[in-house]
Amino acid sequence: MGAGNMRLRYPGLVHEAHGKGSRWRVRVQDSTRRITLPCGPDDPEFHRLYTNARAGKTPEGRRASTVTPGTMGWILNTYLDHLSRMVKAGQASPLTLKQRRGQIAFILDQQSEQPRTKGQRYETLPMTIPVPELVAFRDRMAATPGKARNVWKTLRAAYDHATERNMISQNPARAVARPPYTSKGGATPWTLDDLQRYRHAHPPGTMAHLALTLFMFTACRIGDAVILGRAHEERHAGALWLAWQPGKKGSRHVRIPVLPPLERALKARKVIGPTYLITGHGKPFASPEALRNRFGKWCADAKLADRTSHGIRKAAGHLLALHGATQYEIMAVHGHANAATSQVYTDTVERMRLGGMAVTKLAGLDW
Asked: Whole-prediction pTM value?
């Protein structure tokens, strides 16, 4: 859509040439001041940023700037524009776009340590960023290895996008090893005592109780819990089943029976909405983050402030393994595409079994 058309729809919006590139600027209402937007009209965030700019608010996070072809800013912002279009087409998650927008803002705000460009922001550096600069950037993130791995993943994805489209001949981020990362185990799995304490604080019939039961007996992620409802129900041989495609990229379709505890919890609902989990106003939760915040409050009410919904998923995997489920059966419930992911649960149980067998060999020791 041309700049002329946009001016009709967006008063005060101007698309102008700048250097070797171009930019979108908005005149603040009742003022001569103009604010540069960090994206164009194709971006899902454009309307919100335009509205804020008309009110005099400078875009947050991603710094408003001119993107010059041939720079890192050009490469990374082109990737964001592509990801925005993917979200519009339903081929990517809005949450992924939000996360990567923040990570790219973090990358572009870094300052060069190389002698010839020292102090220069990454946004204006040539897109063929040298290996020593990337090594220095990676090393600066040593104190936050989890964040470093996510940032590197985004950086590689952006440059992969550019190499596939002949914007650059090779991906410099792949010439440097990923930041080292030692897993700390992630979310804490819930214990049987945790589950009992929560259920004591939130009896059947409450939305809090239904949330716990849904997480426990479907092992769904919180991004799926916000959409699960009657539309996902099926009947097989007279029994109620749930079937859905998990939102996480690469996950396999899940189809499982609704076990009696979950069926009882569903029947105990006082209000029925389009989704199983609804707000106090009877509406679906607006986003996974909204449900995460509410579930955190329910956990705090049960004096389990350090527990999360993902910890229930891990507990479900562990209990399945304890009761003899194979890694492939756990894959079917969790929607894993890779057997190694589910093997974590069966390996833990197998090691417990072998350990128990091993120590019994010491039982007859004369001590």
From this structure: 0.52
